[in-house]
Amino acid sequence: MTNRLIFSIIITFFFLNANAVNAENEESVYDKRMALFKKTEALTQIPWYYFAAIDNYERNIKSSDEPEQVISIEFASELWFGPGNSSQITEETIIDTFDGEGKDGNGDGKADPANEEDVLYTMAMLILEYGPTEDDIKIALWNHYQRDLTVQTIMNTAKVFATFQDINLTDRDFPVSIQHNYSYRNTWGDRRGFGGLRIHEGTDIFANYGVPVQSTTYGVIEMMGWNLYGGWRIGIRDIFNIYHYYAHMSGYDDNIKLGQVVQPGDVLGSVGSTGYGPPGTSGKFPPHLHYGMYKDNGYSEWSFDPYPYLRKWERMARDKQ
Questions:
Q1: What is the DSSP string of 209-271?
Q2: Alpha carbon distance 314, 213 (integer Å)
Q3: Do the Cβ atoms of 236 and 222 come closer than 8 Å?
Q4: DSSP letters along 35-49, please?
Q5: Per-residue buried b or exposed e for 23-61, using 16+ beta carbons within 10 Å of the residue's own CB
Q6: Domains of the chain, CATH where assigned
Q7: b/e per residue 281-314 (b: at least 16 CB within 10 A)
Q8: Would you write out the chain's pLDDT as a tens digit for each of its 321 residues?
Q9: How far is residue 54 from each of residues 51, 145, 185, 298, measured CA to CA in Å?
């Protein structure tokens, strides 16, 4: 056996072992999160998927450079410890004295913002100040975050988690059926003239009329109907604070409705050429699907290039076959 072959075997073993370890670690972090969510549910009677959705929202508004935590929910120091508690004493009785919101979730007498059980229990107590119903939770979230889109995103994500009874939802699919002919290239940022000079906020996937349009992700249908630019379009808010926009469709699948939970591969409708005019306008350009992605960071929402993701999801779709 040559040295080169031995080296190749060692490297292969190293990468296979590293991938196995990474997969095990990734699985364990989801298990740890779910165990914490379920424990907090048992203590407070608030369904676990609301805590999971809040945690997921906060994780996805953080910088990608920050190390991933088991629980990503954070509280402002003044809110947690109370005004005037400048020493940030963690004894729950002291925090109560200063009108802080920090609570002891694990029974050690301390309310530590670095302790995952304390953080989740504190969030639960903030929610229960308003009540346990879905409407109460919406009000509690609005008062905490002071932002409608944040509340909407969290409630949508909770709905997805409740539907699938899981938080490890990483599957994806290509937005048009790969059983049909289609073509696309990176068109994000190209110039568009209809309605005034603007940039193209998506990727155009050209296909014949009637080719099925599919959900790429887990999410909730947040928008349906006619748009001057996009014609018949659908907007889906996913569990990673991303809005997926499908436009120029010829129509919708009969089973699709506003507020519906979808998963990768669910048929939404079909490719068309609608838009650039009043309702019903069609044929002003070749049939294609306009697919856009918009990221929310907790303050604003912006378009970003979907092309690299489409290439990845296309490979994933082909691998499934």
A1: TTPEEE--SSEEEEEEEEETTTEEEEEEEETTSEEEEEEEEEEE-TT--TT-EE-TT-EEEEE
A2: 13
A3: yes
A4: HHHHHHHHHH---HH
A5: eeeeeeeeeebbebbebbbeebebbbbbbbbbbbbbbbe
A6: 26-74+113-164 (no CATH), 182-320 (2.70.70.10)
A7: ebeeeebbbbbbbbebebeeeebebbbebbeebb
A8: 454 444 444 444 444 454 444 544 556 899 999 999 999 999 999 999 999 999 999 999 987 777 889 999 999 999 999 998 888 889 999 999 999 999 999 999 999 999 999 999 999 999 999 999 999 999 999 999 999 999 999 999 999 999 999 999 999 999 999 999 999 988 876 665 444 445 667 899 999 999 999 999 999 999 999 999 899 999 999 999 999 999 999 999 999 999 999 999 999 999 999 998 999 999 999 999 999 999 999 998 988 999 999 999 999 999 987
A9: 5, 11, 36, 12
Measured distance CA(199)–CA(306) in Å, rounded: 14
As given in the structure block, the two tokens for residue 150 are 């944040």
Burial of 110-128, coded b for 16+ CB within 10 Å and e otherwise, reads bbbbebbbbbbbbbbbbbe
Q: How far apart are CA 2 and CA 205, in angstroms?
A: 49
Helix, strand counts (H, E) of the chain: 8, 12
**Is there a contact between 219 and 238 (Cβ–Cβ < 8 Å)?**
yes
Say which DSSP state 183 is in: E
Look at the block and give the residue holding tokens 């808010």: 237
